Amino acid sequence: MRPNIVFIMADDHAAHAVGAYGSKINETPHIDRIAAGGALLENCFCTNSLCAPSRATILTGTYNHVNGVQTLSTEFDNRQLVFPELLRRAGYQTALVGKWHLGHGPEHDPRGFDYWEVVPGQGRYRDPVFIGMDGTEQVRPGYCTNIITDLAVDWLDQRDPQRPFCLLVHHKAPHRNWEPDDKHRDMYVDDVAVPGSFDDDHSGHAAAARAARMRVDRDLTADDIKEMLPPHLDPDEAALWTYQRYIKDYLRCVASVDDNVGRLLDYLDEHGLTDDTIVVYTSDQGFFLGDHGWYDKRFMYEESLRMPFLIRYPAEIPAGSTTSALAMNVDFAQTFLDYADVPADSRMQGRSLRPLLRGEDVDDWRQSVYYRYWEHDDDEHHVWAHYGVRTHDHKLVYYYADGLGLPGTSATAQEPEWELFDLRADPWEMRSVYDDPAYGRIRAALVEELARVQRECGDVPWQPPAPVSG
Q1: How many angstroms separate the CA atoms of 255 and 192, rounded?
Q2: How many helices (H) and strands (E) does the chain have?
Q3: Which residue range or ranges hold the Sulfatase N-terminal domain (predicted)?
Q4: What is the rounded distance in angstroms from the CA atom of residue 258 to the CA atom of residue 255?
Q5: Is the distance from CB of 19 to CB of 27 less than 8 angstroms?
Q6: Which of 300, 348, 374, 419 could form a disulfide with 70 if both were Cys (CB 3.0 to 4.6 A apart)?
Q7: Which residues lie closer than 8 Å to 48 by C-beta, 6 or more apart?
Q8: How far is 328 from 335, CA to CA, in rounded Å?
Q9: Domains of the chain, CATH where assigned
């Protein structure tokens, strides 16, 4: 019997704000139910820590230089094959509700679904507009996270019970600007713990880190904080006050997502679907929760690169299991197709996680992951373009700092720089050791590995522009 698939994806939910991942600042009891009944990937990473590019990778099983969604301003060409379309051709019922964020109109709207209803762009937290399959827009009163779950449950009620289904539930939350619902707005009366790297001055990093405009104490807006800064606070006190305003609203939005995950899990239990349904909870990327003094994502630092990925399938995945293998969002499509016994498209570039989730040792599994952030020096966050490779123990990052003329990037290039981090000795990535002679052999090996993984996925390394002849 082919399994049903329920894929729940939040927006910007950092793994270190999930209870099952050892969060020190919040609890997520319903999301944790998935891990308790299944598996947790300890090392799951995105190929580009940005909403639209990550979503394109998840749907197509390809890197962004292949699917063409490299920045937030490059829309998705929906002629590309996506895994729900392959499932649909194989007899699955397919549906998508919630955030799409890959463009709208005949060339960009969701494809491969029997039913979809999505918010335009980022969507609103309260009384959001939804776009239906016929292109009409409708305001749905209420809170977005609850409404998305309502739509998912309504579709489940109307499906054909004799056929397998694939349901994608894409939440807006906890995306900026973090508007909690009424139920959770008074959570976290006490102050939330401050991350140990909150006061990072980035003296141990490349210039790109100091150029970024994502600092909690400087760059959050009045819409984010929703309250005037009290007078007479010194700079340190103001930074901590702002952090508390930010992190509490973020975690309140997460609490609503967790409640709604519980609603879907309860629905599966009540309708006898649990044993035959794969349930996944993930996010489109990680997020800085005051780590390094930042909010947002984009960088290849751990908090941004790492994704939560919890999966339950009682028929095959051992309850309470974990794997430390290096997984990527480019693997998701082939994993779902493998479980459904549907051949993957030849264009897909990942690998099925299924043998790892069964607890098998896969001798030829990857030992490094490739990352590339393309949206160079955008108007708001000013993070420079970079690519890199991460192994179990080290990370090499190259800031080539050139927008390459892509939409949404700056025309101003910067001087390239490297970073190298020893993830065992320096898990917070506070000090690059790229120029440390003691790491010379490791640096050379990582440069070679970066070139190898670029070739393997078909990406092209940056080349400096040719000098203009006189």
Answers
A1: 14
A2: 12, 14
A3: 3-342
A4: 5
A5: yes
A6: 374
A7: 54, 57, 64, 70, 285, 371, 372, 373, 374
A8: 11
A9: 4-180+245-362 (3.40.720.10), 370-457 (3.30.1120.10)
Copy the structure tokens of residue 338: 């493998």
CA dist 284 and 306 (Å) reads: 10
| Residue 434 scores a pLDDT above 90 | yes
Q: Give the residues across from 94 on adjacent strands.
A: 166
- Please give the pLDDT value at position 467: 74
Nearest to 6 by CA among 82, 95, 118, 133: 95
3-class state of residue 203 by DSSP: coil
Residue whose entry in the numeric block shows the structure tokens 């239906």: 132
Chain centroid offset of residue 376 CA: 19
What mean pLDDT is reported for the chain?
97
Q: What does the alpha-carbon distance between residue 403 and residue 266 come to, in Å, rounded to a whole number?
A: 46
Distance CA 381, CA 139 (A): 31
Bridge partner list, 115: 95
Tokens found for residue 415? 């001087």
Interacting residues of 85 by C-beta distance below 8 A, sequence separation 6+: 94, 111, 112
User: Among candidates 340, 367, 363, 335, which has minimal Cα distance to 350?
Assistant: 335
pLDDT tens for 396-414 read: 999 999 999 999 999 999 9
Q: End-to-end alpha-carbon separation of the chain, Å?
A: 70
Residues in the chain: 470
Extract the tokens encoding 228: 């005037």
- Dihedral (Cα; 193, 194, 195, 197), 10-degree rounding: -160
Residues 6+ apart with CB under 8 A from 102: 52, 55, 56, 69, 75, 76, 108
Does pTM surpass 0.85?
A: yes
Query: How many Å apart are CA 403 and CA 390, to the nearest integer?
Result: 23
Q: What does the block give as tokens for 154?
A: 């309504």
Angle between helices 235-270 and 29-36 (to 10 degrees): 50
Q: Which residues contact 463 (CB under 8 A, 6 or more apart)?
A: none
| % pLDDT > 90, the chain | 98
For the cut 70, the answer to whether the pLDDT of residue 210 exceeds it is yes
For 343-371, what is each residue's pLDDT tens digit? 999 999 999 999 999 999 999 999 999 99
Q: For 444, which DSSP code?
A: H
Tokens 């950092």 appear where? 14
